[in-house]
Design goal:
The complex is a heterodimer of chains A (about 80) and B (about 220). Chain A has about 80 residues and is of the alpha+beta class. Chain A has 2 helices and 3 strands. Chain B has about 220 residues and is an alpha/beta fold. Classes of the chains: A alpha+beta (about 80), B alpha/beta (about 220). Chains A and B meet through helix 1 of A and loops of B.
Chain lengths: ~80, ~220
């Protein structure tokens, strides 16, 4: 079994009001020491690598559900 | 009498209002559970109702769009079956690829529950043929009601006249004030405000959408 962490963020060009609200609160507390913040999702996934021809094939298959490509980007979190 | 399937997903909420609206225009509703692998025979149209399918886990509509019956609906829609997605049903249609774009959190970050006025942008669609008013008053109730599409795809939609309804006042930050769209062939429509509440409220503008559907089925 292999384990990966996969992260999904809304694309830069798409306005995310939740991230804006979080940034607003942090800036009220810390001022302009906080320049930006982007809220995302993280998925910790264990999978049987022998059932997939490659890691990229596995990533493509899970991305179909985990990422809405119209507004989001997804990638494996490198450690 | 024409039969209309009303899909029931885990945490669909507005089924009864859809049933009332369909009966109001003498269409025969038939509730179908989303666990079915195929639509039963004799179904003339499908409504995906509002609600919070799968509690909006992952993204609104994302998990419902993977249900086996959705593949059956996509297949039938390619052959002209009318499909109406309302609110969460609209989100499911977008996630399933039946309609372009997606629905995002309202720019205000608030759950909006309000009466909204819509302009009819495509009066020739099968969904608007029986609308004789210049505007529709409907109830909008959603957190993820902001329609989003990139500018290139929007231009393509405008060229194909796929925008059916626009908000007169863009209450949730939708791209181009879009409240409802259709697919290229016109048989699939998604709308964020709720036409089905017309059967219960003083203003029953939304019923004309169901009346339009019935007229289309009678003429097809």
């Amino acid at each position: 079994m292999e384990k990966i962490e996969f992260v999904v963020f809304i694309k830069d060009e798409v306005y995310d009001p939740q991230s804006s609200a979080i940034l607003d609160k942090l800036q009220k507390k810390h001022g302009n020491k906080i320049a930006s913040i982007k809220q995302g999702k993280i998925f910790s996934i264990e999978y049987d690598s022998e059932k997939f021809s490659s890691k990229s094939q596995f990533i493509n298959e899970i991305s179909e559900l985990l990422v809405n490509k119209t507004v989001e980007n997804g990638k494996v979190l490198e450690k | 009498m024409y039969s209309v399937a009303v899909l029931r997903f885990l945490a669909s909420l507005d089924i009864q209002a859809v049933l009332d609206s369909l009966e109001c225009v003498q269409l025969k509703p038939c509730v179908i559970d989303s666990s079915y692998s195929e639509l039963p025979p004799g179904i003339d149209a499908v409504v995906l109702p509002g609600g919070f399918s799968y509690a909006d886990y992952l993204r609104p509509g994302a998990l419902a769009a993977t249900e086996p019956i959705i593949a059956s609906i996509i297949d039938r829609a390619r052959n002209g079956l009318p499909v109406l997605g309302i609110c969460n049903g609209f989100q499911i249609c977008c996630e399933a690829g039946l309609l372009p774009g997606t629905l995002l959190r309202n720019t205000s970050n608030e759950f909006i529950c309000d009466r909204v006025s819509l302009k009819i942008s495509d009066k020739s669609s099968i969904w608007t043929a029986a609308i004789y008013k210049k505007k529709l008053n409907l109830i909008l109730k959603s957190s993820y009601g902001r329609y989003y599409i990139d500018s290139t795809s929007l231009r393509a939609m405008l060229d194909r006249q796929q925008i059916v309804f626009r908000y007169r006042e863009n209450i949730n930050g939708s791209t181009d004030s879009i409240a409802g769209i259709r697919n290229v062939d016109g048989n699939v429509m998604g709308v964020m405000p709720h036409p089905e509440y017309g059967s219960r409220l003083k203003f029953n503008d939304g019923i004309s959408i169901f009346r339009s559907l019935k007229s289309y089925m009678a003429s097809a």
